[in-house]
Amino acid sequence: MESVTLPPELERFATEAVSAGRYRDVSEVVVAGVRLLQRHEQARAELLASVLAAEQEADREGCVSGDEMVARVRARLAKKHGAAV
Questions:
Q1: Cα angle vertex 29, ends 23, 33, to 5°?
Q2: What is the mean pLDDT of the chain?
């Protein structure tokens, strides 16, 4: 593996984390950071897939605007309760 050079503020943070006993060494701090980035990227990919699936569903089945949805809900509530909402 390639060696990693951290900017001074991150090197200081990593060294403090090791000194505080949260990590064995700076390498372990970097591994924790890369794992966090990996989880972030996975969550991002899952969100993107969800948005794309929703777009495809909207293309297939149609969609309504937020204002239209609010109007529909209000109309149903008014009909159910017999009064304007």
A1: 140
A2: 92
